Amino acid sequence: MKIIALPLPKQRVFFHCYPSEILLKKVTIHDRVVNRIYNTWDAWSKSKSFIKQKTVSIGNRVLHQTPHEESFLKSFSSAKKLDDGEFHSTTMIERPSSLEPNRIFQELIQLQGMRRLHRNNLILNIIGLPLTIPFILIPIIPNVPGFYLCYRAYCNYRAMLGTLQINRLLGKKEININSNEKLESAYRSFLDGDNHKLNEFVGHQEFSDRYQRAIKQVTKSPNNQ
């Protein structure tokens, strides 16, 4: 997997990963289910139903509040489909030249330590599910609390798997971390208010928005010192 690393305030690091060609060829039942859910969500966003539109609006606000660490861990969890040889030969980290490798290592270690947090949250979400049963009795309104707890339980589970892949990465004697001048240039343009180069480098038009949300999360959080 290819991982993009960018600086955050308070000595933190933002990670974004792309699946390798090998990983893209390993399609699982989980991948098919997730794609079906994404397609359903997209259909709801285009629906004229007030309830579906409202649900999508609330859901998107919740998604935008997801901690950047969790988003990366969920994405990185898919690396479990790779054997050790494939994993270590294809996993690399690209950084702007202004971002020191030591900060990247420290962030990886911090992510590695989040397994207990996501395990505890997973348990709490599962415990809370029975409390949403009364909403099932109202056929007109979707069981939004139940959907939310299921979604959060799924996110915590995938994030837990992601921490295990961080363990694999840190277990490698030498992690492939490369300085990229094009990424440095795109990062500098972002700091100057031009998001286009960064989005173009990553290949995702909403990437800079995600990065900006991560910056705000770290800036506002009292736990990131």
From TrEMBL:
Organism annotation: Schizosaccharomyces cryophilus (strain OY26 / ATCC MYA-4695 / CBS 11777 / NBRC 106824 / NRRL Y48691)
Annotated transmembrane regions: 122-141
Domain of life assignment: Eukaryota
One Pfam family here: Mit_KHE1
Protein name: Uncharacterized protein
Signal peptide (residue range): none
InterPro entries recorded: Mit_KHE1 (IPR018786)
Any Gene Ontology biological process: potassium ion transport
PANTHER family linked to this entry: K+-H+ EXCHANGE-LIKE PROTEIN, TRANSMEMBRANE PROTEIN
Keywords, sorted A to Z: Membrane, Transmembrane, Transmembrane helix
GO cellular component, one term: mitochondrial inner membrane
